[in-house]
Each structure stands twice: as C-alpha cells, then as structure tokens.
Amino acid sequence: MTATGWVALGMALFGALSYGVGSILQAIGAMRSTSTVRTLGHPLYLLGVGCDLLAWGASMVALRELAVYQVQSILAGSLAVTVVAARLVLASRLRGRDVAAVMVTIAALTVLAMSAGPQEAVPPSGPLRLGFCVAAVAVAAGGWVATKVGSPGVVAALAGTAFGGAALSGRALPMPEESANTAAFLLALIMEPMTLALLVFAASGMLLYTNALQHGQVGPVTAVLWIGEVVAPSAVGLLLLGDSVRAGWQVPAALAGVVVIGAAVVLATAPASSTTSAETAVVPKPAAPVPALSAPLSAPLWPSLDASTQLRPFLDQESGVIRWWGPPVVDRYAGTFWWWGPPTSPQLVWVPAGRRVGTRFRGTARVPRPEAYF
C-alpha cells in the first residue's frame, strides 16, 4: 500500500471513530425529543451531526483511494466504538461476548485493510449517472412511505442504503478539470448529476436514521443501518466502479466482511447499545391525605396582616412546601437564552419578585414588558 493509501486508511478509521461518538449523541438527542423536527434542533443531536459530517468528509477522502467495500466495512466498526463509548460515558455494562465482538471486529478490520487491491477510476457514463439519480429518488420516496407504515428496522435499512448510495456517489463523482476560475470549477461540480445524487442520498439517510432512532433502540437500529450500508454498496463498487481485491485475498476479505457484520449484530444486543433507548421514568409519590379537623375552628388559620407588613415566604415544616403570598415567581415568558427552541414559544420561568423577562404570555396574547432581567 502506498503512502497515500495509508493516509486514506487513517481517514477511514477516523470516520469510524467519529460515527461511533455521533451515534451516542444523536440517540440521546432523539430520545429527548417528541418529533423529528424537534430532534433536528436538539443541541446534542446537532453535535452528533457535526461528528457525522467530519466522518463523512473523512470517508469521502478515503473513497478516492480505497475500495468501497473496504471503507464501508471499516466504518461499520463504529458500532464497536459506540458500545465502548457507552461503557465509558454512560457506565453501561459490557458482557463477555461484547468484548469478544469488539476484539474480533478489530481483527477483521485489519484483514480488510490489507486486502484491497489497486483501484481504477471508472468515468461514470450517462446511463450510470441516470441510474444513480433514479435510485436516489426511489430510496427517498421509499423511506417516506416506510416512516408512515414501516417498522424502525425497515427505516434503518433504507437509511443504510441511502448512506451507502452517498458513498457510491462520492466514489464515482468525477472531479472537474482544474481551472484558474474557481467559480467555473464550482459550477461544473454543482451541475454534475452525481453531485445531486450524493446530496439526495445523504439527506435521505440522515432523516431516515433520525426517524429510526426516535422509534427504535439505538443498538438494533445502528446494526441494521450498517448492514444496509455495507452489503449493497460493496457489491455495486466491485461490479460497476472498478473496485478490486488484492490477489489471493478474495476469501479472507469476504470472510472478514461477514465477521464484521456478525460482530455488529452481536454488539447490537449489548446493554451498552440500548442504554440510551429509554429515559428513566420517575414515578411521583402520592400526596398525603389531609387530616380531618377534630373540632371546629374558633379562629382564622392565618392572622390578619397589616397592609404595610412585608410578605415573606413561609416554610411548612410538615410538608416542606414553601407558601408565597407575594407576586408569582413562576410565569410564562419567551425569549430566554437558556432554552432551546423558538423565541416565541411560551415557557415556565422562575423570576424574582419585581423582575421580568422580555415578553410575557397571558393566555394566547403576548404582553410586552419593558423591564429586562439582565
């Protein structure tokens, strides 16, 4: 392998690491949201998307030098990264078979790294360009239907197919001839049909993966995702894009690919993979019954207070509840900087007496307040 090939291999390994960390962040963000739209705006999900973008860029660089099956199989090892990261970050339990699957994955990825032969650049023909564009639209349409009637596994499989299609599009994408005019170079790249197919595949995969995470467990969803992302794209790369296997390494490469997929299935059942699939439910304790009065009251419960008396909160020693007679300290306002969401949405905010935060909601009307909290 040449020096450029080793650099490409390093980029593929970096992509696997970034994908593994991104899966954890996206899963937590998706489980803490109530819809796909809200998930896309969650900060943890956005951070996970940033990791995915780094991994995607690294994989595009690797695909210029390495075979599709090689890069995609290495990226599939990100599930092992996900399991190990869940153990370190979330203190999840690792079974003996999970540790063995991680070690087997590392060994299989080593075999795959050594099995790639010289890759030939195949200029995409007109029918190939048309086929990629039609496939991108078909996967997007099928994914939309699957989100309405399908299971998370079907949605995850289509997401993996979409990501695999993006990898194939990046592998087959012809670079325009170098020109001193940068605008002409970018225009030629944008007008290339393979670029359109790449963008449609990538956007469809991201949305479908988000939907699958929202309705399924992160481990099985991610395993099905990588199976769909490795199998079909690898076959297309070998048959249509000029990918080749090193002489004498055909059988070891095939076995290593099967081992990676099998290890991914084992890791999908790991407790560390399903840690973020459900939030811990907090069951409130029932309120204590109010004791009956043994005799009629001869005096009011609270003494009458003069209007000039300064009101202060009173702590009920038995129930531990703070009684407050002054202005409400919890109100509905909008535009606070610590809440993630549209600035026009009402929310409950703790406000000290005499202070206000931006715009107050009263029913369905917005009442502007001139006082600022800070």
UniProtKB/TrEMBL annotation:
The chain crosses the membrane at residues 6-31, 43-63, 69-90, 99-116, 128-147, 154-173, 185-209, 221-241, 247-268. Keywords: Membrane, Transmembrane, Transmembrane helix. The keyword Membrane applies. PANTHER family: CONSERVED INTEGRAL MEMBRANE ALANINE VALINE AND LEUCINE RICH PROTEIN-RELATED. This is Integral membrane protein. It comes from Virgisporangium ochraceum.
